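Dear colleague,

Following up on yesterday's call, I've attached the two folding results inline so they're easy to grep. Please treat them as preliminary; we haven't cross-checked anything against experimental data yet. The first protein's sequence and structure tokens come first.
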Amino acid sequence: MKIRLLLLSLFCVAAYSGKAQDVAVKTNLVDDALLDVNLGVEVGVAPKWTVELPVSFNAWNMSHGRRWKHWLAQPAVRYWFCDRFAGHFVGAQLHGGQYNIGGFDGKWNLFGTDARKLKDNRYQGWFIGAGVNYGYAWILNRHWNIEAEIGLGYSFTRFDQFKCATCGRKINSKKPHNYVGPTKAAVNIVYLF
């Protein structure tokens, strides 16, 4: 419901302004490569400021009992150093969502997160956090851009742990985990209205 209200607010701001290149829709090629359904909407709110709401969703069933299901929303505010939707920008983002992941042969322990535990366990829970972003947008023509963005930040998650990826035997309940590190990676194809 909150996401719907935020999207409605973004569209109302866009409808009010009515100028060219005040609204953009985008898809993240990194999410696309991970088979996530994703869409982002960005609205200009001042000459050098925009707000955006990218969302992604993955509910596919995978082979061999693996789980990789989640939804994610990352509302953000961006400051553009030149014009909106062109050149360098910095931003601040919030993020939150839910996940259900397990059955993968993770081979790394990075930023306090041990992916090696994903092979024999399934984790189901929610997360919230915040971060800062940097990016650059290349203008292709009047309506199309390519945009690259990286973000660093903090996430707090609370999860239930299950013994295997497909079974339901819970071995830990409502366990907290803190994460500091990359929170966003995007290469967006952007259409400007």
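Below is the second protein, in the same order (sequence, then structure):
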Amino acid sequence: MNKQIILFFLLLIKVSYAVGQEDSMSYRAVYDFEYTVWADEAKRNDKIFLDLNKDGSFCYSAYTYESDSLMNTPNGEETFRQLVTAALSKGNTTDFPHRRSKFMITKKNGQKQAIVKESIQSEVFEYTTPICDITWTVTDSVREICGYSCFKAIGEYHGRTWEAWFTPEIPFSDGPWQLTGLPGLIVKAEDKEQLFCFTLKGFCYSPVRSDWAGKGKKTTRQGFLKLKKKDFQNSGAMANALLGTNGTFDSKKKAVFLETDF
């Protein structure tokens, strides 16, 4: 048995024991998420919450939650339009509550599939996807990230190669988005092309927030991603309709996705 396998099992035993000691607590891991939407354009930024307890986890964008909460208030739509108008009058196209990452990922302990919800325009879609098919290779590399001793692992998932750093000091075999399956919380994860990067910024006690989207239209992973790609191709016209503008959009722009195998 080589050193990597021995290390992996020792860490797994440590994580299993620690989770058993604190199985009544709930936590929130806060990640900075740098992501690419369009090729050859600057990355965008999001704040991702991963709410964790003994039953599983729920991952979502804090900014999307803020925006959806506003829109669900009695005068939310009108307030939103006023905030957009005020920001645009100052030449700022982002300084108002707006949705960023739209995925909501529910992972339940003991299950091999994650429940994914994501919206296209105003319609919510829902599907399940296996998360047990990430084959991680734990390396000998060790470094400190956000104050935690972390180990490096390499994995392939849905068309991208991911470099992940995880820490047994936070005893949850989980991570941001759909990344999971290592003996400790994933503290940092970046794809090989450096188009997407999750970095832990904080970890604290917190109630686990419930999925607020309701039931989504049932679909498949590949079916949804094809619809999403088509929506991106029409995004210029959609933005003009929403904001009442008459902007132009380069139809040759290439959208970039977390998953490429669809």
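For the second protein, one point worth flagging: The helical segments are 3-21, 62-71, 76-89, 221-233, 235-243.

Best wishes,
A.L.
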